[in-house]
Specification:
By secondary structure, this protein is an alpha/beta fold. The chain has helices spanning 42-48, 98-101, 142-145, 151-161, 177-188, 203-209, 220-224, 243-248, 271-276, 288-301, 315-323, and strands at residues 4-8, 17-21, 30-39, 65-72, 84-87, 90-92, 112-113, 125-129, 133-135, 169-173, 192-197, 213-216, 230-235, 250-258, 279-282, 307-311, 330-334. It is built from eleven helices and 17 strands. The structure holds NADP nicotinamide-adenine-dinucleotide phosphate and zinc ion (ZN). Zinc ion is lined by residues 41, 43, 63, 89, 150.
Length: 335
C-alpha cells in the first residue's frame, strides 16, 4: 500500500515535521486527490495550538485544498482521474440525517472535518468522500481559488443567509484571509462595504478590494462615528474585540455575525440588543452546494484571494508569517 507524505504537528504548538501515513484501502465513495495547492487558514493554527481542545495528534493540517483526482472509489461516478477539484473544511458526513437531506451537510452531527481525526492538505495527497469535493470552474486559477474553499465559503454563506443585496450596509472586521474575500463578495453583491481593521497600512488595498470606507478599529472615535450604520457586521477576527462598539455600530434589526473565533467568551450588554432588535450570531463554513455556487460566482466576477505562495516544504515559515499577521492576504502552500 503506497503511503502519503505530508507535514504533521505532533504536539500542541509544535513545528511541522515530515510524516508518511498509510491511507488504507480506498473506500467505494472516496476519491484520492493529488494536491497542488493548500491555503493556510487561521483555523489550522487554532488546531495546531489545540485552542479548541479537539486536535488529535499527530495530524497533518490543511483544509483549503486544490488538486487533481488521482483515483476514485468503485461507487464514484461523475468524477474521474485528472479532474481539478477543491476540498474545504469538511471531508464527510452521515448523508442521511435531516441536515444532510436538506443539503446542509455542514450542520450534520456526524460531520468529519478534513484535518481533525484525519490528515489534511499540507501533503502530497488527500482522500475524502466524493460528496465533499467540488469541481473547479475552468476560469479559476488554482492558487487564488484554494482559499475560497474555506475562507471564501465562510464569509459567502452568511451573506447569502442574510440576503445581502444592493440596499445592505455590510461591515467586515479584520482584513485577513477571510476578511479580504468578504470585502470582494460584499461589494459584488452590491452592498455598501465598510472595512474595520487594526492595520492602517491595509487601507488602500481594502478600498481596492471593494470597501467604500476604512475604519481604524483601534480608534474609539472612529468606531463611534459609525454608530447605528450597519445591517450586518461579519467579524473575521481571532482576537478579543470591543464587542459593545460593534453592536452599537448596527442599525435596528442589524446582525453581528461571528465567523472568526475569539479566545474568550463574549461579554455583551443586553439593552443595546433589546432596544434596537439587534442580533448576535455565528456561522461556520457552508454546504458543498453553496461552495459550488460560490466558486461559480467567483469565476464570473473575478473574485479570488490575494496570495503569497510558499513551497510546501516551507510550511513552517509560512505559518510563522501568518501568526505575525504579515501575510497579504493568504499564504498558499504549493507542491
Ligand atoms: P487571518 O488571515 O490571520 O486574519 C485575521 C485578521 O484578524 C488579521 O489579518 C487582522 O486583520 C485581524 N486581527 C489579528 N489579530 C488581531 C487583534 N489582536 N485584534 C484585532 N484584530 C486582529 O485569519 P483567517 O484565516 O482570516 O481566520 C480568521 C478567524 O476566522 C480565525 O479565528 C479562524 O479560525 C476563523 N475561521 C472561521 C471559519 C468559520 O467557518 N466560521 C472559517 C475559517 C476561519 P487587521 O490587520 O485588518 O486588523
Ligand atoms: Zn479554514
Amino acid at each position: 500500500m503506497p503511503t502519503i507524505p505530508g507535514l504533521a504537528v505532533h504536539a500542541a504548538g509544535a513545528e511541522l515535521l515530515p510524516l508518511k501515513y498509510d491511507p488504507g484501502d480506498l473506500q467505494p465513495q472516496d476519491i484520492e486527490v493529488r494536491i497542488t495547492h493548500c491555503g493556510i487558514c487561521h483555523s489550522d493554527i487554532h488546531l495546531i495550538d489545540n485552542d479548541w481542545g479537539v486536535s488529535q495528534y499527530p495530524f497533518i493540517p490543511g483544509h483549503e485544498v486544490v488538486g487533481t483526482v488521482k483515483q476514485v472509489g468503485e461507487a464514484v461516478s461523475h468524477f474521474a482521474p485528472g479532474d481539478r477539484v477543491g476540498i474545504g473544511w469538511q471531508a464527510d458526513s452521515c448523508g442521511f440525517c435531516e441536515w444532510c437531506r436538506r443539503g446542509e451537510e455542514h450542520l450534520c452531527a456526524e460531520e468529519q472535518r478534513t484535518c481533525i481525526g484525519r490528515h489534511g492538505g499540507y501533503a502530497d495527497a488527500i482522500r475524502v468522500n466524493v460528496r465533499f469535493a467540488v469541481k473547479l470552474p475552468e476560469a479559476l486559477d488554482s492558487q487564488t481559488a484554494a482559499p475560497l474553499l474555506c475562507a471564501g465559503i465562510s464569509v459567502y454563506d452568511p451573506m447569502r443567509a442574510f440576503g445581502v443585496n444592493p440596499a445592505s450596509r455590510i461591515g467586515v472586521i479584520g482584513i485577513g484571509g477571510l476578511g479580504h474575500l468578504a470585502l470582494q463578495f460584499a461589494r459584488t453583491f452590491g452592498a455598501e462595504v465598510t472595512a474595520f481593521s487594526t492595520s492602517p497600512a491595509k487601507e488602500e488595498e481594502a478600498l481596492a478590494l471593494g470597501a467604500h470606507r476604512f475604519v481604524h478599529s483601534r480608534e474609539t472615535k472612529a468606531l463611534r462615528a459609525v454608530e447605528g450604520s450597519q445591517d450586518l457586521i461579519l467579524s473575521t477576527v481571532n482576537a478579543e474585540q470591543e464587542w459593545g462598539a460593534y453592536v452599537a455600530a448596527l442599525r435596528p434589526h442589524g446582525t453581528l455575525c461571528l465567523v472568526g473565533v475569539p479566545p474568550k467568551p463574549l461579554t455583551l450588554s443586553a439593552l443595546p440588543l433589546i432596544a434596537k432588535g439587534r442580533c448576535v450570531c455565528g456561522s461556520g463554513t457552508g454546504s458543498p452546494a453553496r461552495i459550488a455556487e460560490m466558486l461559480d460566482m467567483a469565476a464570473r466576477h473575478r473574485i479570488g484571494a490575494r496570495t503569497e505562495s510558499f513551497p510546501m516544504t516551507e510550511a513552517n515559515q509560512a505559518l510563522d508569517k501568518v501568526r505575525k499577521n504579515h501575510v497579504r492576504y493568504r499564504a498558499v502552500l504549493v507542491n
